[in-house]
Design goal:
Radius of gyration: 21 Å
Low-confidence stretches: 1-35
Distance between the termini: 73 Å
Number of helices: 4
CATH superfamily of the largest domain: Peptide methionine sulfoxide reductase
Shape: globular
Strand order of the largest sheet: 5-6-10-9-8-7
Mean pLDDT: 85
Order of helices and strands: HHEEHHEEEEEEEEE
Length: about 180
């Protein structure tokens, strides 16, 4: 019983620390907003900006994505090679995430890999993507995800051209192209 007061005091200190460092209690807007802020690169602004992570339910994603986009972005699917609309595209512009609109790749970094998927030597900025180990299909690969919404974009391989030696092999269904001058 003599420790009950001590534990109560420590609990109150923890709550006070959470309130002062976040501007609100856990579950309140100030707390959630602080945890979801990320630094990303904006091609339009030409610099890093702060953004919110995009979190949606399965039902919300299904409302805004086509069935193919949902399969690729949210279920980690892959479109068939040579079927995607950006596989052989040579227009000048920026490729964005089809799920949240985050800038991902520049057309200047796109090249013909012969694989049937849009391939890039590097992302528009390292902070705009994240990678994870993918052990599906009896192989170990590096999966590429959108940093803002977590959508599956494709995979990166170490068989690309110079200067990076990397091939970011993306699904067209995961991308949205915006032409620039």
């Amino acid at each position: 019983m003599k420790y009950a007061g001590l534990f109560s005091g420590l609990a109150l200190l923890g709550i006070a620390a959470a309130v002062s460092s976040t501007g609100g209690l856990i579950g309140q807007p100030g707390f959630a907003d602080a945890a979801a802020r990320i630094k990303i690169y904006s091609a339009e602004k030409g610099t890093d900006v702060m953004s919110e992570e995009v979190v949606k339910t399965k039902e919300e994603w299904k409302k805004i994505l086509t069935p193919e986009q949902f399969h690729v972005l949210r279920e980690k699917g892959t479109e068939r090679p040579f079927t995607g609309k950006y596989a052989t595209s040579h227009e000048h512009g920026v490729y964005r995430c089809a799920g949240c609109g985050l800038d991902l790749y520049r057309s200047e970094d796109k090249y013909e890999s012969g694989t049937g998927w849009p391939s890039f030597t590097k992302p528009i900025a390292p902070e705009n993507i994240k990678t994870e180990t993918d052990r599906s299909f009896f192989a170990t690969r590096t999966e590429v995800l959108c940093r803002r919404c977590g959508g599956h974009l494709g995979h990166v391989f170490d068989d690309g051209p110079k200067p990076t030696g990397l091939r970011y092999c993306m699904n067209s269904a995961a991308l949205q192209f915006v032409a620039t001058k």
